[in-house]
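Justification of resources, computational component.

The compute hours requested in this renewal are based largely on the per-chain cost of generating structure records like the one below. Each record pairs the submitted sequence with a full structure-token output. That output is archived, and it is also reused by downstream analysis tasks.
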Amino acid sequence: MSARIEVVLIRPKEDGNVGAVARLAANFGVARLTLVRPRASLGPEALRRAMAGQSILRAARVATSFEEAVDDADLVVGTTDLSAGRSNAYLRRAVNPERLGEMLRPMVGRAALVFGPEDNGLGRDELARCDLLVHIPARREFPTLNLSHAVGVVLYAAHRALGDENPESTPAPELLVLQGREKELLLERMGELAARAGYPKHKQRGLNLMFRRILGRATPTDSEYRMWLGFVKSVNRLVKRKDG
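The structure output for this chain reads:
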């Protein structure tokens, strides 16, 4: 991703939220934080919540209007808690954070992610100024997230869209490759062991099904399968010797 991500907070009212957003900006490499007519006082609570993002908080740009905040942005992305299709008030269909990340990945330029105030979100005119809307799916009974939480979700999705290409990112968990052949071989060996150990024949089918379900939930890695198979083979050899 070559796009420079900026976060714009419109009339934030809680200093703790602003501090937490500054910390998130540090977590995910945000280029700039802009506050539009902030109602929050950026005092000790904001600094405490900012942690390693204190330098971003202190350098935050303060704008007097929405237009001033996004005047140099190539793409303006607004956030809304309205799900697509429920109202005429938000003008166009919103994308989810994952889709936003995919869209930002090939872009070059400045992308402003705009978040409304804690009490009522972005207004109709502000949403109309946005080039794109993003909506975080949540329960219909309570669709509104805390401001800093919403920022965290959107920034995480944008950051993860980089995949493993960003050398400054912490490594993602290793991809787990499903090992179907190893699984079937292990199940076969476990069944043989159960039969050789004298497990009741009429219960062996249920036992095999239980093993399959456990493996399905656990999704072992290739090395774990090999170690498990080695253990079962060792036990099988031991049982064979005792039978002999």
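Confidence is low (pLDDT under 50) at residues 84-90. The domain at 2-160 is CATH 3.40.1280.10 (Alpha/beta knot).
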